[in-house]
Request: fold
Amino acid sequence: MKKIWKLTQTKVLKKQLHLSKSWKQKVIEARDRLKDIINWKSNRKILIIGPCSADFEESLFEYAAFLKEMKKKYEDKLEIVMRFYTGKPRSTVWWKGILHSEPGQEADLKSGIKHARSIAIKLIEDYDMSLADELLYPELSSRLWDLYSYMAVWARSVEDQLHREVASWLAFPVGMKNPTSWDIKIMNNSVLATKKPSQFVMERVIYNTWGNNEAHGILRWWMNWPNYTQEYIEKSDYPLIVDCNHDNSGKNPEKQIDIMKEVMNFTTSPLPGGDWVGGKVKWFMVESYLYDWRQEYTTWLQKWLSLTDPCIGKENTKIFIDEFYKKLK
Reply:
């Protein structure tokens, strides 16, 4: 181990790279709209959509321009949030996301954090995007939290104490995925823990939290078969978002459209105790980019095509959003 650099303090970085006052207010307004949907104060639906992992800034800006058109066209029924996933969880090795480096480059966290923050600011101010990320590294993520409207806690960290405590402090909705052990009960426990007040330490400061009232579950998969069906929706004690990709789709991104249609077809179904499926499902998380599918991570990288999980391209994304919109009352 070799100490190479001290991280720039969060407050210093935010002064160096900051949102204008008017855009800060728009981020707050986006958070409030999401909270209203999760608390069933609004009939609009949530769609968290975008690339599996943020990679090249040119590609992200081109995708944001496309998504801006979709957002404007369907805003009366949909709250669209762009996936800006700055880290990539790895079971072993390979590229770990733009917080670490641009694809194909050596890790440089000092530059990566600033680069990610500058991209996020441009996505907000130039493309009117609300942003979502995945909480992999709480201390690194803290340098972008003021820019986010939504956060997911990934499957491998949903049981981790610090992730739960930090999530309970965040001022925007947080989704807890079911873990790699597939247990819905653990997801429910994570949501409950996130809703409760707590304390944690970051950057030598002790923080009190008040609990995150908008914590909810994300159904990602169940063992060797999908868990977006009514059977598993019934198992959740809290509001849900259905992850249409990953093992729910068997990593066949085009199946995301079929999953959406299937869920929408039973959202008016009754649940035990008089509840209904549509009262739990706050709707969908989708992996989408400029072109269909993905590429292998090699020495030659093609922009505009996912480096990690396969995604649906623009044309299939249009189909997904249009079909989803038509099924909403």
About this structure: Residues 109-127 form the longest helix (19 residues).
